[in-house]
Amino acid sequence: MYNSLLKPLLFQFDPEKVHHFTFKTLRQFHNIPGFNSLFFKKYQVKSEKLETEVFGIKFPNPVGLAAGFDKDAKLYKELSSLGFGFIEIGTVTPKPQDGNPKKRLFRLKEDEAIINRMGFNNEGVEATVRRLKDNKDVIIGGNIGKNKITANEEALNDYAICFQALFDVVDYFVVNVSSPNTPNLRALQDKEPLTKLLLHLQKLNKAKEKQKPILLKIAPDLTDDQLLDIISIVETTKIAGVIATNTTISREGLTSSDKDEMGGLSGKPLTKRSTEVIKFLKENSQTKFPIIGVGGIMTADDAMEKFKAGASLVQLYTGFIYKGPQLIKDINEAVLQQRES
After folding, report:
1. Could you say which of 178, 179, 274, 312 is catalytic?
2. Cα 50–Cα 55–Cα 57 angle in degrees, nearest 5
3. pLDDT tens per residue across span 204-252
4. Residue 183: its pLDDT value, please?
5. How far is it between the farthest Cα atoms of the chain?
6. Residue-range domains of the chain with CATH
7. What does the pLDDT look like over 179-195, one tens digit per residue?
8. Residues annotated as binding site for substrate?
9. Which residues are the active-site ones (predicted)?
10. How far is CA 10 from CA 13, 28, 76, 108, 134, in A?
11. Known catalytic residue at 256
12. Residue 102 and residue 292: Cα distance in Å, rounded?
């Protein structure tokens, strides 16, 4: 129904307005008695064989929702009923911010892709914390960043504020220094500032009675030498793992009319590169740290390629928008079939 009816209709309208409309509609539907269980029966794949333990957390299945979709933790309960094994909220910043001027979200239908230059638009970490206090059983990742007005030299404080505020309401953290939509943010991926940032967060983490896994989300545009630096940083700071990858600034091979819009590109054009990054990290790391694979997962086969390359878990964003919740079910069924064989 999604691909034949809903998507053709929704894709006639502005993507950001559709996003907010979808949130509102899904929330209303879930208030209808029995509707939640209907979604559960249609899209959930339940099996102990799907359970996946990574960095000390037992996930009911290995398919999650990537950050950027539910930035402010407004719909994590409803989205989890579509079959996701975990939901990553954010990117969250200490203070609320509007993000970049609109229009800032573009569908590239011919390329099965999206360009966004949202700019960490969110209501601030305290609003997110309030919503997550009601969570009972959804595994939540907290993706954290810095405010646009915060200089890179002061960025460490922004990440620390978000870490401390979210600590009691998320299951793991993701440090986002790889979005192309906040000026100079990617400079924090350089070895010295990134090591300093992660060591500081680990210091805060170790001061807690029980530590939470900290992961690093990286760009797909890093060179092999930069990826080797990432491996070294992970091993030095002893963070829990890496999310590979964020959106790309590359526009190679695109045919859609909006291909030259500024921002980060996600979707099918990223499929190959994100898998290459996962494979490189896995083959060149000594500690074999866990990797969450994200980027261009448009089919179950794409997800299985990520697992084959070395991912322990996968996340969806653009594939979820283009293919709907059936994609979550297809991936989980493919994983289950593999594990049963």
Report:
1. 179
2. 55
3. 999 999 999 999 999 999 999 999 999 999 999 999 999 999 999 999 9
4. 87
5. 54
6. 2-340 (3.20.20.70)
7. 998 989 999 999 999 99
8. 71, 116-120, 176, 181, 246-247
9. 179
10. 6, 17, 21, 14, 31
11. no
12. 31
